Amino acid sequence: MLDQDAGANPPPSESHGERDQPVSTPPNREDGRSRLWRAFAKPTRGQVVVAVLLALVGFAGVTQVRTNQVDDTYAGLREQDLIDILNGLAGSTQRAEAQIQQLESTRDDLRSDTSARQAALDLARQQQQALSVLAGTVPVRGPGVTITIKEVEGQVDVGPFLDMIQALRTAGAEAMQINGEVRVIAQTSFDDGTGGLLVDGTLLEAPFTVDVIGPPDALVAALRFPDGPQDQFAEDDGAELTFEERSVVDIETTREPVEADVARPQQ
């Protein structure tokens, strides 16, 4: 009975010393890797200096090797070979200089052509402006005179009026308008009308105001010479002609361009 009870007893438990003993862990393999990464991520001043020195030494070594290779290349050539190389370089230089001279000559020609073209354009523009003034297609302003003709004893006749226009043109008149309505050009027509004058088909009545742009002194002389327009209006028509020199005369009246029916410019 005692043996059976003894056999039924459970086996003795492990001692407290064996149960409380700490379990050993393998060494941390990432510590060295982490230290290396931190060294690269945040290099010290000494590491930077060493890296720069190594880079300079490497660059100097490569340069020296290349220099030695070039020296070895030319050192192995004969004197005649070196002369041929120099002659080739001289020929290349001469060809390059010739090309430079050719390009400079082309540049100068282009500049000359551009200047000539610009001069031609400027001349054409000036001629176009002058023709526009003579054709009456643009408003103009300039020094001149303003003429007023009043009927005193009778009606103004077209004859003295035409003589006055011609005298003003001879004196250098560049632009004229009558009563602010009709621009006078080379093709302008004049005729007697009922109660006035027909100028390019427009009936104009007295008093007549003629604005003229041109040299004021010459225009005044053209009006006042003996038996000139001023005397002629007074004697023939009993009209009074007065004038006023002006530093600025504005002529706003324009007309449509007139195309020639028969005449054509020569080619």
Describe the structure.
- The longest helix has 57 residues, at 79-135.
- The chain has a 5-stranded antiparallel sheet with strand order 3-2-7-1-8, with helices on one face. A 3-stranded antiparallel sheet has the order 4-5-6, with no helix packed on it.
- The protein has a domain at 139-251: Protein of unknown function DUF881 (Alpha-Beta Plaits), CATH 3.30.70.1880.
- Residues 1-25 have low confidence and may be disordered.
- It is built from 8 helices and 8 strands; from the N terminus they run H-H-H-H-H-E-H-E-E-E-E-E-E-H-H-E.
- A hairpin with a 2-residue loop joins strand 5 (196-199) and strand 6 (202-204).
- It has helices at residues 2-8, 16-19, 30-41, 45-75, 79-135, 158-170, 216-224, 229-237, and strands at residues 140-151, 175-178, 182-184, 190-193, 196-199, 202-204, 208-213, 239-251.
- Helix 6 (158-170) runs antiparallel to helix 8 (229-237).
- The N and C termini lie far apart (154 Å).
- Helices cover 53% and strands 18% of the residues.
- The radius of gyration is 55 Å and the shape is elongated.
- With 267 residues, it is an alpha+beta fold.
